[in-house]
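Recap slide: D-alanine--D-alanine ligase, sequence and predicted structure.
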Amino acid sequence: MSSQNIIVAFGGISPEHEVSVLSAMQAIASLKNTSYTIIPLYISKSGRWLTGPPLLDLENYQDLDALVKQATSCSFGHDDLGKPILRETEKNGFFSSPEQHSIHAVIPAFHGSEGENGAFQGTCEMYNIPYAGSNVLASSLGMDKVKAKELCRAHNIPVVDEYDFYESEWVRDQKSVLYYAEKLQYPVMVKPTTLGSSIGVAKADDEEALIEAVEMAFRYDHNLMIEKAVIPLMEINCSILGTTEQMQTSVCERPLGQQDLLSFEDKYQNEGGGQKGMASADRIIPADISDELTQKIQAMSRNIFKIFRASGVARLDFLVNTDTDEVYFNEINTIPGSFSYYLWEESGMNMKELMLKLIDIALEQHRQKVGRIRSYDTNLLNEKAVKGIKGLKGTK
């Protein structure tokens, strides 16, 4: 088994499943001519873990049912020496044994839900596997729009006023939700709390539109956020690469939407979107804004990246009032679409260099973690101690 296997993990049970596939294929393509062996780990829409050569070809994803039948079930495990492996759990032939692959590092390319919210990162932690990107804490905070805003507000980073509520509250007391929306003043934005790619996001100019937007958004999430709309609006994004101790800042971009919000279609379904993912969206890079505003947003991006204890590559999204140049934090994407390589290209780093940098960061972060004392030698389970614990059963 090679000791230089890079696992690219993607897919998952998420409305952003297809977007994840696109990001993964871009990462895989960029690493083809390197010293690493690329092994796909595809999580199907039903939650099955799969691997195999057919998963490396984007065209095969046009028929997911057929692709799943061609792939091989797999799981994380440990070899006889206790080192993490990706183990195929099916035999390819009558006389063959399931293969197992050593793991040098994992590149998560998930978007949304269990892949980006820290759950998969936690699995890697449990198996002691180096992985690219943010840790469990930063990933989970970044996925929750409400908690992310609360954290920024606590650090005096400007955010737009919002109100969040659960589906049970909407069913029980719709009038209260409508009251708070009125208090924010229309127009407002309706957003699922834990989704990305603008899925389920809608603008509401009045109560009727709000009710329709809420009912639609509840199809994706049980917790929604109503947010005061910024008018006139300009969206500016910036990417950060590195760790909380050492980071690089990309140029800024100004995404161009067809409406007054950047939709899923704007991001992924423009010309070439089927192949380029987030990189297909219309945008101006570097953003056509003043040097002063650029520097302000870059400084805010570095600060937020550090506050969230993020690592790897992240994209910070901001809302700007074009009349006043007031800047508001919108969200942090701990696994940005296409890994935001288009921002780093404009900053002098191509996709291949970006992915190699992510692997290096992952390995260094892992080395720092395993270099610490991770167990505490004690004889707590000796006979005397066990008797003492048993004696506690009768105490209060």
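The mean pLDDT is 90.
The chain has three domains: 5-131, 142-158+231-367, 162-228.
(End of recap.)
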